Every structure is written in C-alpha cells, then in structure tokens.
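New to this. Help decode the following:
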Amino acid sequence: MELSLTETEVRVLGSLIEKDITTPEYYPLSLNALVNACNQKSNRDPVMQLHEDAIRDALGGLQERRLAGPAGGADSRVPKYEHRLQEVFNFTRPEIAVLCVLLLRGPQTPGELRGRSERIHRFEALDDVQSALQKLMQRDPALVKVLPRQPGTKEARWAHLFSGDVAREAAQMARTAGDRSFRRWRAHCSTGGRSVRTAPGSRRHQGSTGAVSEAVRVIVSGGHSCPSLLILPLHLGLTPADRDTRGQGQHQNQRQRRRTRVSDPHSPTAPAPAHTQPRPAPR
C-alpha cells in the first residue's frame, strides 16, 4: 500500500489515534471534536488552524486508503469518525505510541519519544523505544526512518514515512528554519547601538529585505541545514550603498559641528575666549 498522506491527513490520523487511547470515553470523535483535536496547541508541532472543510477532505483521503472513516452504530445523532490502523497494520501498543507522537510532533529522538508518549504507553527503558522503532522500520513498506544526526546533537532523530520519503520534508524544514533565523536577525539588527527601523516600501527597506532574501537563498541552496550556521553581520539591515552614504553623512555632520563650535563664539559648546575667563582674586 502506497503511503503518501498530506500534512492535514497526517494531523487528522494522529489526532484520532491519540484520542482513542487518552480519552476513550469521548471516542469516536465528531467533526467538531476532531477539529479541536487537530488545532490544539499542546503536543502539536506545528500548531495548525484547520477548518471543517479541510478536515472533511482529509477524512475522505484517509477513507480511500482504509486508514480512517465513519464509525459504525446507529445510536449517534451526529456522524463520528475513527481510525482503522489496527485493521490494516495490527500494531502493538509500543508501536502505536511511537507512531502517534511522530505523526503529531514530527521527527523525534528516542529520548523525546519516551518522554512524550507517557499518556499512550509507558516505556520502561530507552531500549524499548529503540525496539519499537526497529519493528516499524522492518515492516514492508517501512513506516519510519532514521535521519542523519544533526551537528551538535548526540542522538539521531526518527521520522514517520506516512507522507513518503522525508528527504523533501527535511529540506523544507531546513528552509523554514533558515527563514526564521534570518527574520530574527533582521528584527534585532542594530547600527551604532540603535535598532534599525525601515518603512515598508522605501528603497532602504527594499534593499535590506532583498539582501536578506538573497542570503537565505544562497545558504539554503548551498545545503546548510543547521540554523546555527546562519550568521549575519549586524549591519545587514542596510545595503552597502546605504551604509556608505550614511557613513559619509555622519562624518560631514561631525565636521560641520566642529566648524560651528570654532567659528561661532556664541555657541554654547564653543570654548570661552581667554580675556573673558575670570581671573583669580588677588591675595
């Protein structure tokens, strides 16, 4: 069976699995309850804002793959929905716990999986998490995959394969992380101890934004996936021409102020003439 779920279908499937185990008294879920489960802020990464139409479309796609669908029973006043992973894959509880966290939170290390699956299944040791991951990877087709270890990390992360191979997903995550890092740098850029504020639409704003966008494109296309490598100078808020023009203007203003102090005797900052300085009183 080919697994190529969309991001919304993955969120719907993960939410159904979670509520089936953590709140069985409210399961199966109505459409409104499923929307709330998909959009909740806790135990979700990323946090999403899905509407009922998107949830309906996702349920239709999952039903075509026999992964979810309407729940049976005539005692319900409103349609309710349930997942059907057990009928398709016959997972054990450790396997379904690991897979649920991966569907809801994206790539995780074994340590993160152990800590974030407490409500679904309690793993006594980290080896139990590794064993569940290995079983999922040995299925045909494989359902999880270990990702290359990132620089500066001790553990490798695991990702689910319900959306296909994670190569494109990892590239998109790196691009998103790069965009966020550059936005943070751009927001905190300072010149001379003052924050750089530019008006939208101005030449200076367009030039600085273009410089940031070009830097993002170059670094991401070069294969840098670690946000810590995205280091920019603090003067990125200005284009080179703007920095040169601003620097020249500052020097000219300083020279003009010096001339004013020397040529204008009434200037409050000009030094007092020698003959007007008070003389010491005679003893």
User: Anything to note?
Assistant: Residues 91-164 form a domain with the Arc Repressor Mutant, subunit A fold (CATH 1.10.10.10). Confidence is low (pLDDT under 50) at residues 190-200, 202-238.
